[in-house]
Amino acid sequence: MQSNFEDYLRAAEDHYLQTPEMNGFKQQVVALQDRLDLYETLRDQELVIFQAIADQLNNETFSNSQSAQEKVLIHWISVLRYSAMAMLTDRAETLTIQLNWLGDVIGGSEFATLNQKISELVHLCLNSVLTPDQLTLLEPFLQQADGILVGQDSPELALLS
């Protein structure tokens, strides 16, 4: 997204933007506003989302210790934040770098079941908090996170489409 803005700004340095360029610029502004709205929703609803996930995790039994579960849950908060920023800037490559690092921390087989469950719960909570259009904007980044941290695309994402 940033490069599109930069392209329009560079073009405007040597001439006034023509109607097709202005229309493209306006589309970028509208898309950015939609992304900002989604980002704000995620920011404002983060506690609600992750409290629901923590409550659900407390009702289930995992082979991991309570402290390990808490650490993995905190890392998933980072995953959603990283995904939100990647969505806002429309830069999947930034998310890839962050997730690869995080995958090394929480992607081990000892956390596989826990990662899978948290991923499912994140998707379910987002489904109840976000609009279908917002889910569509965020979905590619969540799929990327699932691919790296869970090792597969989450079936819940298919239901969200």
Describe this structure in words.
The protein contains seven helices and no strands. The protein has helices at 2-14, 19-58, 66-89, 92-106, 112-129, 132-150, 155-160. Helix 2 packs across helix 5 and helix 3 packs across helix 5 (112-129). Helix content is 84%, strand content 0%. With 161 residues, it is mainly alpha-helical.
**How many runs of DSSP E, i.e. beta strands?**
0
Could you tell me the radius of gyration in angstroms? 18 Å
Q: Structural class, judged by helices and strands? A: mainly alpha
Strand proportion:
under 5%
**Structure annotation, total helices:** 7
Please outline what is shown here.
The protein is an all-alpha fold and 161 residues long. The protein is built from seven helices and no strands. Helices cover 84% and strands 0% of the residues.
Task: Provide the descriptors you would attach to this structure in a database record.
0% strand, 84% helix, single chain, disordered C terminus, 161 residues, mainly alpha
How do the strands and helices of this protein lay out in sequence?
Elements: H1 2-14, H2 19-58, H3 66-89, H4 92-106, H5 112-129, H6 132-150, H7 155-160
Helix pairs in contact: 2-3, 2-5, 3-4, 3-5, 3-6, 4-6, 5-6
